[in-house]
């Protein structure tokens, strides 16, 4: 029988079951909560899983929106820093005997955040949602359609154990039909005796009546052709996909124009809703972000930017707009109105917005979509084409074909002057620097050395080659243009984009609780690249407080390919008294491996995986041979060191329990030959090579455990017959010697990590940012590998105390085991000759990595030599006796040992 479907979240599963049962348990009738419309009998029922039933019935119901209120539902108070939204999902719809009335069953979910540990900004927040199962009627017998539904809801208990039922809930919505620019919203209330009222607002979907076509001025500069922007096939959906997203705002003269209807000066704008109609008709909804919203969201641990909720909160600025795409001019012209508490007044509709796709880029214009927002009512002369006082908006980050865009350098000569004034920049250096192989070699990551933070720098143009945008077109432009230019000249004109996150400290109400909030810097720079020295000298611009600062100098010594890291600095060219002056920011730069080295690294990882599986398989073989040896030699098991077998068993067990989740990876939409599916329809995948490795490790662990149990059983049997007392006494002496050595080594590893400042170094911050394992755990695991490298030590000590000359250990076992432990160090020495480890530890090392043991030039010599010495010593012990070196231990009548010279034997 098929397993019944249920979400992964147990609470969600229980809530779903309750919601399905709620209509039958509703305590309050529909007529007592909804005065309209009158109930009508169902005529036709239409249902379908995950289908928009309302659309098929031509119902302009919202799919999502914003809500305010809900304090008694445990939602945090309304604030732009905490995003909140509601969703409306129609589960069943039916026509009734009245053509103007439709019977609906739907689920409404409120989503947001709640405080825990108090109601303060300095306490933590967590995601919170409440669901309502509702049933009612939609009526479109008037110009403003209405919906009224009743039902019950549920939410999680405060302790997380079970749910709380919320009865007698009523939903009332007013839907504009048709929607217009001045009536763009669906409004309503969700009410219940347990929580009061929650106000709902959504951008209207469905029927829309467009207004008059808006006029807009000619864009400043050339515009890309429609065929290039839309790949030769214009569609309204494609236009919406290009326009939807976040835009950076820039104000002329650093301030908003006089008379502009927006109340505040914002830093960004987000187009969250955009719909298209016939003949290129477009309508949109856009929200403006507060300056401090992103920082506050990060401070609260919310990784979703507030404007991404798709709707304005109380106090937010927002615009509604409609207009038409003009294909002959390659631009979109919109007429917009400012919203005030979900209403639109005609007096707030004097705003004109137009968007276009620039064909020429420069240091201050690098957006694939650009636009202007202006207030026509402030034009005293009535000229609707007036551009003064407009606010510029732009959107970057497009991944596509930008081959038709031309770049206009304007600050290269200034950068050359700074380059020639600093002889250190032109000094030739040893090593290979980014050149004519791949444009990807010019991109680099960075971490700040004067401030906490990190960032990334990517080239926009190299010479006349546009390398921003799509990978294929960038590769083609680089090979056809940049390579030839670098061969002909030493100084190559370049332009870059820097995205930097600088940490600033935010003190909380408690002195010990200090948070770090990133301050994002975006710097556009252009200048020259010295192909001989690998240095960049550029002049940069950044937008700060909605105005541009173009007095910035950026110098970078690019990281050598496969070699040491680079360095760089960002400094202000202004006087210290200037308000835009900032102290020099220094950083270290590390580049991604060149394409050819990346291919070699992938090949190396595959080889190491094969070597790792092979070594573990050989371990299983040697364990089987040791078991066979013990079966043929009854005296072998009692003479085998229990400490040695226990250490080896732990060595096989640790990889099975440490980082078990590494076996699994999220689907992420990609499936390749390395993965096999665990269960049908699941989203978790098991990496095949990890499975083979862990399977062989599990077999080795079982065999080792079997050998340990057999040795314990044989030792116990020998002890019962009176012949195993010497062995147990020798085992105790071995434990007393080996265990303190192991503990002392662990303490020596622990001591360097006790200091408070260890975790506050920039390098540690970057390691945590890229998910490198903590240094202490690496060191302890490496030390555990060192103990396994000397796995023969307990057996040798035990033989010495018992003066045994029993052939307890098979040569296959101790010689093969020694070879397996020494092989990674030999491989590490060979790998170091062809692979230069960068400042980040080689966390891609599968074989001979930090989890396998200690690796360095010294350790790669000492450990194999030491392991070989132990194997040779064991060989002679089993041939000549455990006391062959100098002495033998003779048991006294009282049970203790005395040491006598071998000459007396």
TrEMBL record:
<feature type="domain" description="DUF2921">
    <location>
        <begin position="65"/>
        <end position="191"/>
    </location>
</feature>
<dbReference type="InterPro" id="IPR021319">
    <property type="entry name" value="DUF2921"/>
</dbReference>
<dbReference type="GO" id="GO:0061630">
    <property type="term" value="F:ubiquitin protein ligase activity"/>
</dbReference>
<feature type="domain" description="DUF2921">
    <location>
        <begin position="214"/>
        <end position="382"/>
    </location>
</feature>
<feature type="transmembrane region" description="Helical">
    <location>
        <begin position="691"/>
        <end position="712"/>
    </location>
</feature>
<keyword id="KW-0833">Ubl conjugation pathway</keyword>
<comment type="pathway">
    <text>Protein modification; protein ubiquitination.</text>
</comment>
<feature type="signal peptide">
    <location>
        <begin position="1"/>
        <end position="27"/>
    </location>
</feature>
<keyword id="KW-1133">Transmembrane helix</keyword>
<feature type="transmembrane region" description="Helical">
    <location>
        <begin position="857"/>
        <end position="876"/>
    </location>
</feature>
<keyword id="KW-0472">Membrane</keyword>
<dbReference type="Pfam" id="PF11145">
    <property type="entry name" value="DUF2921"/>
</dbReference>
<keyword id="KW-0812">Transmembrane</keyword>
<feature type="domain" description="DUF2921">
    <location>
        <begin position="419"/>
        <end position="586"/>
    </location>
</feature>
<feature type="transmembrane region" description="Helical">
    <location>
        <begin position="733"/>
        <end position="751"/>
    </location>
</feature>
<dbReference type="InterPro" id="IPR057425">
    <property type="entry name" value="DUF2921_N"/>
</dbReference>
<feature type="transmembrane region" description="Helical">
    <location>
        <begin position="639"/>
        <end position="658"/>
    </location>
</feature>
<feature type="transmembrane region" description="Helical">
    <location>
        <begin position="610"/>
        <end position="627"/>
    </location>
</feature>
<dbReference type="Pfam" id="PF25333">
    <property type="entry name" value="DUF2921_N"/>
</dbReference>
<feature type="domain" description="SWEET-like">
    <location>
        <begin position="599"/>
        <end position="885"/>
    </location>
</feature>
<keyword id="KW-0808">Transferase</keyword>
<keyword id="KW-0732">Signal</keyword>
<dbReference type="GO" id="GO:0012505">
    <property type="term" value="C:endomembrane system"/>
</dbReference>
<protein>
    <recommendedName>
        <fullName>RING-type E3 ubiquitin transferase</fullName>
        <ecNumber>2.3.2.27</ecNumber>
    </recommendedName>
</protein>
């Amino acid at each position: 029988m098929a397993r019944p479907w249920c979400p992964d979240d147990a609470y969600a599963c229980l809530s779903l079951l309750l919601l399905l049962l709620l209509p039958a348990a509703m305590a309050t009738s529909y007529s007592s909560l909804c005065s309209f419309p009158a109930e009508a009998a169902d005529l036709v029922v239409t249902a379908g899983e995950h289908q928009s039933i309302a659309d098929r019935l031509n119902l302009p119901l919202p799919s999502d929106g914003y809500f305010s209120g809900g304090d008694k539902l445990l939602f945090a108070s309304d604030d732009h820093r905490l995003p909140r939204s509601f969703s409306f999902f129609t589960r069943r719809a039916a026509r009734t005997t009245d053509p103007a009335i439709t019977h609906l069953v739907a689920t409404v979910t409120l989503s947001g955040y709640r405080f825990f540990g108090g109601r303060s900004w300095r306490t933590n927040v967590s995601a919170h949602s409440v669901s309502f199962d509702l049933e009612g009627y939609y009526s479109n017998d008037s110009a403003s359609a209405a919906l009224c539904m009743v039902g019950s809801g549920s939410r999680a208990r405060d302790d997380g154990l079970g749910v709380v039922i919320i009865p007698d809930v009523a939903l009332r919505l007013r839907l504009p039909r048709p929607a217009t620019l001045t009536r763009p919203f669906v409004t309503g209330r969700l009410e219940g005796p347990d929580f009061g009222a929650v106000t709902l607002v959504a951008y209207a979907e469905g029927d829309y009546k467009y207004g008059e076509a808006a006029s807009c001025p000619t864009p400043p500069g050339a515009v890309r052709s429609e065929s290039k922007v839309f790949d030769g096939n214009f569609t309204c959906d494609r236009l919406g996909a290009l326009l939807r997203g976040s835009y950076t705002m820039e104000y002329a003269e650093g301030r908003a124009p006089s008379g502009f209807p927006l109340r505040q000066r914002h830093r960004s704008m987000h187009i969250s809703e955009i719909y298209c109609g016939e003949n290129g008709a477009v309508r949109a909804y856009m929200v403006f972000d507060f300056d401090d919203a992103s920082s506050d969201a990060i401070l609260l641990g919310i990784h979703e930017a507030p404007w991404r909720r798709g709707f304005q909160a109380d106090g937010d600025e927002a615009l509604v707009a409609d207009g038409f795409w003009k294909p002959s001019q390659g631009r979109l012209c919109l007429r917009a109105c400012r919203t005030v508490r979900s209403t639109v007044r005609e007096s707030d509709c004097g705003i004109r917005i137009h968007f276009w796709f620039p064909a020429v880029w420069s240091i201050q214009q690098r957006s694939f979509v650009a636009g202007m927002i202006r207030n026509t009512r402030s034009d005293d002369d009535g000229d609707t084409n007036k551009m003064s006082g407009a606010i510029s908006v732009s959107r970057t980050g497009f991944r596509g074909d930008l081959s038709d865009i031309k770049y206009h350098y304007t600050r290269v000569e200034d950068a050359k002057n700074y380059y020639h004034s600093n002889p250190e920049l032109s000094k030739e250096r040893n090593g290979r620097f980014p050149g004519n192989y791949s444009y990807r070699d010019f991109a680099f990551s960075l971490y700040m050395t004067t401030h906490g933070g990190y960032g990334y720098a990517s080239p926009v143009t190299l010479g006349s080659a546009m390398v921003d945008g799509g990978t294929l077109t960038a590769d083609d432009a680089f090979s056809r243009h940049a390579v030839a230019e670098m061969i002909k000249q030493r100084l190559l004109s370049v332009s870059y984009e820097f995205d930097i996150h600088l940490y600033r400290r935010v003190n909380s109400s408690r002195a010990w609780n200090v948070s770090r909030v990133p301050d994002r810097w975006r710097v556009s720079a252009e200048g020259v690249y010295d192909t001989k020295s690998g240095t960049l000298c550029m002049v940069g611009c950044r937008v700060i407080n909605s105005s541009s600062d173009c007095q910035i100098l950026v110098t970078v010594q690019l990281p050598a390919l496969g070699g040491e890291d680079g360095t760089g600095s960002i400094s202000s060219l202004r006087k210290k008294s200037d308000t835009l002056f900032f102290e020099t920011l220094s950083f270290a730069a590390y580049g991604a491996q060149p394409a050819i080295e990346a291919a070699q690294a992938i090949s190396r990882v595959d080889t190491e995986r094969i070597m790792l599986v092979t070594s573990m398989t050989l371990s299983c073989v040697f364990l089987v041979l040791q078991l066979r040896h013990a079966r043929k030699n009854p005296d072998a098991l009692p003479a085998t060191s229990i400490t040695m077998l226990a250490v080896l068993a732990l060595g096989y067990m640790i990889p099975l329990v440490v980082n078990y989740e590494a076996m699994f990876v999220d689907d992420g939409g990609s499936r390749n030959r390395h993965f096999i599916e665990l269960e049908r329809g699941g989203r978790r995948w098991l990496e095949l090579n990890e499975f083979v490795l862990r399977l062989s490790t599990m077999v080795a662990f079982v065999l080792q455990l079997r050998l340990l149990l057999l040795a314990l059983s044989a030792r116990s049997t020998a002890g019962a017959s009176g012949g195993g007392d010497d062995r147990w006494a020798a085992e105790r002496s071995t434990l007393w010697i080996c265990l303190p050595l192991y503990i002392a080594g662990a303490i020596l590893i622990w001591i360097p990590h006790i200091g408070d400042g260890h975790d506050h170094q920039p390098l540690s911050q970057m390691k945590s940012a890229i998910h490198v394992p903590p240094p202490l755990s690496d060191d302890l695991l490496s030390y555990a590998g060192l103990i396994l490298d000397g796995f023969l030590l307990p057996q040798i000590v035990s033989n010495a105390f018992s003066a045994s000359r029993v052939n307890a250990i098979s040569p296959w076992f101790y010689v093969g085991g020694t070879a397996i432990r020494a092989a990674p160090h030999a491989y590490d020495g060979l790998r170091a000759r062809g692979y230069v480890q960068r400042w980040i530890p080689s966390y891609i090392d599968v074989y001979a990595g930090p989890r396998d043991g200690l690796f360095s030039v010294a350790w790669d010599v000492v450990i194999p030599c030491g392991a070989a010495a132990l194997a040779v010593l064991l060989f002679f012990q089993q041939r000549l006796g455990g006391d062959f070196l100098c002495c033998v231990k003779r048991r006294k009548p009282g049970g203790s040992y005395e040491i006598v010279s071998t000459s007396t034997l």
